[in-house]
Specification:
Blueprint: H1 13-35, H2 39-50, H3 56-62, H4 67-79, E1 83-87, E2 95-99, H5 101-109, H6 111-121, H7 125-143
Helix pairs in contact: 1-6, 3-4
């Protein structure tokens, strides 16, 4: 394998992924702003639409973040009426997060983000799905315990 230090920055996968991340956030920002939420809040809502009632720790694990990083956006979501926080019945140290009807409605409206991303990518839905699969495969390989 060749030494990647000799590759121009534009040919390094890490920089391409980083740049793509920034471009996606720039694309999403105006739409998220109009919905009144931030990208981290969007991620929390997206996690809860997959499985409502998760604990702060479970949301953090799903997003590969620390629990302390998840608590502030959850508190802001609760302040705007999009989620409720509830102490666990068997373990009060656990905080469960539940979508409200307003939260469910907002995340349903957020479908436009993914649709816009696919449209702007210039790929067909099938090509985009395959590309996303390749990135998930890479992520899984890089995350595997070695």
């Amino acid at each position: 394998m060749e030494d990647t230090a000799n590759y121009p920055l534009s040919e390094q996968l890490c920089f391409s992924l980083y740049s793509a991340h920034i471009a996606v956030n720039r694309l999403y920002k105006p739409m998220l702003d109009s919905m009144g939420i931030t990208y981290p809040q969007y991620l929390v809502l997206s996690t809860l639409i997959e499985e409502d009632g998760l604990t702060i720790g479970a949301i953090a694990e799903r997003l590969s973040l620390e629990s302390s990083t998840i608590t502030p956006p959850v508190k802001r979501l609760e302040a705007t009426g999009l989620v409720l926080r509830r102490r666990g019945k068997t373990d009060e140290r656990q905080v469960h997060v539940v979508l409200t009807q307003a939260g469910r409605k907002l995340i349903a409206e957020a479908r436009c983000l993914g649709e816009t991303l696919v449209s702007r990518s210039g790929m067909t839905a099938e090509e985009f799905s395959a590309f996303n699969g390749q990135i998930r495969t890479l992520l899984k390989a890089l995350s595997a315990d070695r």
